[in-house]
Amino acid sequence: MAFKKGESGNPKGKPKGARHKTTQLAYAMMEGGLEDILAQVVAKAKAGDMLACRMIIDKIIPTQKDRTIAIELPVIANLTGVARAQSEILQAVVDGEITPNEGERIASIIEDRRRAIETLELEARIADLEQRK
Q1: How far is CA 50 from CA 46, 54, 58, 61, 85, in A?
Q2: Could you give the angle at which helices 100-132 and 79-94 cross, rounded to 10 degrees?
Q3: Is the pLDDT confidence value at 33 over 80?
Q4: In the chain, pLDDT over 70 holds for what percent of residues?
Q5: Which of 79, 86, 83 is CA-nearest to residue 122?
Q6: Residue ranges per domain, the chain?
Q7: pLDDT, the chain, mean
Q8: Is the pLDDT of residue 78 over 80?
Q9: Three-class DSSP labels, 97-128
Q10: Cα 9–Cα 13–Cα 14 angle in degrees, nearest 5
Q11: Are 98 and 71 contacting, i.e. CB atoms less than 8 angstroms apart?
């Protein structure tokens, strides 16, 4: 029997947030010995086991995805400002003030601004040409 598009074949299926039986079993097995397991991982880390160290650090210290960056850039009102801003970004990367990835992300924002400026300038030129006709 074919189901209609967008209609579930099992409308009373597994509710959201329900765990698979295997996951439930794993949690039940760990519950009793979780403190022992953690103690073993900590002991191995103290003994120099780098995998155990990494497990602990990965769970305690979250990976940093973004950070606020303070960088002085010129006003970007025209293409000259874009060029100056790109130079400042490059210099900040070279000087180690920001990482290359951060520089690339900022440069991408500056590139979006450059395109917007060019679009506005082109629009003004077209309007000027149309008025001259």
Answers
A1: 9, 6, 12, 16, 43
A2: 170
A3: no
A4: 95
A5: 79
A6: 21-60, 79-132
A7: 86
A8: yes
A9: CCCHHHHHHHHHHHHHHHHHHHHHHHHHHHHH
A10: 145
A11: yes
